[in-house]
Amino acid sequence: MAPASCLPGPKTYEAQYRKDGRTRRVSIGRHGKITVAEERKLAKELVGQVARGVNPAEEIAQHRRASTVAALCERFFDTHIKEHAVSRLPKGNIAGLVTFSRIQPSAASK
User: Can you tell me the distance from the alpha carbon of 26 to that of 55, in angstroms, rounded to the nearest whole number?
Assistant: First the structure.
């Protein structure tokens, strides 16, 4: 297989297959970072997965749609902290909530 594009810039090896009546493409790797032999081996493995009924492009899409740490922290804050911890804090003391809201963005960036 050859790199996918004739345009200037980085070249990427791709494997193309049909699944459920749709043509799908999956990026295998960048030219120069993997050899042609490695690319062919990975493409054969991918075609084998498709033959076994796996849809690699859909698995990649599901992984990209998964919740981020920031989204999980926000959901925890909304569902648990606001409902349970606020009633336990002394009246007017929201220091714990402010601390959590400051930690959450920095934890998500790591």
Answer: 10
